[in-house]
Amino acid sequence: MARRSDHTREELKELALKSAEELLNDKSASELSTRQIAAKMGYTVGTLYQIFKNLPDLLLHVNARTLKILYDDCLALNLTSDNHQKNILAYANVYLEFAHSHPGLWELIFDNQILNDDELPDWYLQQVNSLFSLIEIQLKAIQPGASATEVTKTSRVLWSSVHGICTLSINNNLFAQSACSSEELIQSLISHFIMGWTTPTKQKARGKSE
Amino acid sequence: MARRSDHTREELKELALKSAEELLNDKSASELSTRQIAAKMGYTVGTLYQIFKNLPDLLLHVNARTLKILYDDCLALNLTSDNHQKNILAYANVYLEFAHSHPGLWELIFDNQILNDDELPDWYLQQVNSLFSLIEIQLKAIQPGASATEVTKTSRVLWSSVHGICTLSINNNLFAQSACSSEELIQSLISHFIMGWTTPTKQKARGKSE
DNA sequence: GCAATTATTTAACAATGCTCAATAATTACT
DNA sequence: AGTAATTATTGAGCATTGTTAAATAATTGC
Questions:
Q1: Which segments of chain B have a pLDDT < 50?
Q2: With an 8 Å Cβ cutoff, are A188 and B153 in contact?
Q3: Which domains occur in chain B, in start order?
Q4: Fewer beta carbons under 10 A from the terminal one: N or C of chain B?
């Protein structure tokens, strides 16, 4: 058979991504396979390779959609409060809630095995940056005097830390013994870190920023 | 052939683990295979399955050895300083340096695909806990008044955050654009977080711990 | 309505984790 | 010493994986 034209190229792409995403509701990223995705689409593997370069490429596009959802969820919060620490916490909770409700998709974002992070395309990096910038805006509001470099750095610290808490507390049961929820951990991280970040530095140790 | 007795059961175990570790010097965890390990040992896959239940089991033992190295490295620091924040930073740098010098082993520790974290054995969890306890000792020294729960929680927050920074900055190039080293990020995290944690709480927001 | 195009499939390759029957070397026993 | 029981090790095999490339069938253009 050929040129069934049941779906346009664009529809096929959408279909493939949606199929992969649905499969990730039930399985983890490592259990996902091209044949499974193709089967769910009602097509064969060969078709998949006409739309995407390979499986990592497909998964990269899944990730891009996930990042967009995260970004939109953050925007949907419509934060207007002057309590910028509370705002950052709200953003963190968007991550956390998404990680809890879509562990498969979340896992995939930070999966270094499947994705080859060595050469992430520009359009993807820009999406990541726009997420960072949300935090940077809040940080800048907290300390208007901070340099751009310092704000960037701080946003990375916060994002990485939130990420660490999300992954370790969700995929790993290393915390089973310490009966504290990931919400609590993130609350602790952000409140204490921001508190320390904004505390007037009397005489900070060498190597300290700001 | 049979019963070559070239190696005892225990020697085989050691040989297998060492072979896996050596392979991880050049490849990432996902590229590791049973046949490769067996070949490096000078044996066949079948032998591997007489020593370990399966590949995840083997890798779990690799991880256990990595954790031991980390723990020993921490002890070797022989920290006696009263500057407990500095001590924690020293521990963090042990992690970071190990992650940099042995990315394959480091990656494996936090790999949720390969390892099935659902049911980590007790002896493994205890190893993790002993690493945590090093941090907890320092935290307890910083704030003797803090409850055991609070100290445990805080150690988890710090460990997760350090982990997040290590993984994201090593495997992921999301930080390529923000020209700051992982050392700087960790320094920022720890100094600010501890500062915030120890800052006398005048009137903290609701939900705050301590 | 025939020919060119192309969407889709099928088959195939190499490699994976894992199992189990075949095999060969060492012990145990007479 | 020589046969029998034991067992360490292998090798073949299964199902699955990602990926490619040739075969196939349907649509378009003439």
A1: 204-210
A2: yes
A3: 8-52 (1.10.10.60), 55-198 (1.10.357.10)
A4: N
- Three-state DSSP at A171 gives coil
The strand C neighbours among B residues 29-88, by Cβ under 7 Å, are: 32-36, 45-46, 49, 54-56
pLDDT, residue B209, reads: 44
Span CA (A1) to C1' (D25), Å: 4
Minimum distance, in Å, between the CA of residue B198 and any CA atom of chain A: 9
For the record, the structure tokens of A197 come out as 């970040």
- pLDDT for the residue B205: 46
Task: Tell me the residue length of chain A.
Answer: 210
Task: Please list the pLDDT of chain A residue by residue as tens digits (210 residues).
Answer: 555 667 888 899 999 999 999 999 999 888 999 999 999 999 999 999 999 999 999 999 999 999 999 999 999 999 999 999 999 999 999 999 999 999 999 989 887 776 666 678 999 989 988 998 999 999 999 999 999 999 999 999 998 899 888 887 776 666 656 668 889 999 999 999 999 999 877 654 444 444
Pairwise CB contact (< 8 Å): B113 & A30: yes
B184·A152 Cβ contact <8 A? no
Report how far apart, in Å, the C-alpha atoms of A77 and of each of A97, A177, A184, B123 are. Answer: 13, 33, 20, 44
- What is the residue-wise DSSP string for chain B? -----SS-HHHHHHHHHHHHHHHHHHS-GGG--HHHHHHHHTS-HHHHHHHSSSHHHHHHHHHHHHHHHHHHHHHHT----S-HHHHHHHHHHHHHHHHHH-HHHHHHHT-TTTS-GGG--HHHHHHHHHHHHHHHHHHHHH-TTS-HHHHHHHHHHHHHHHHHHHHHHHT--TTSSS---HHHHHHHHHHHHHHHHHS--SSPPTT---
Distance from CA of A3 to the nearest CA of B (A): 37
Q: How many residues in chain B?
A: 210
H/E element, A122: helix A122-142
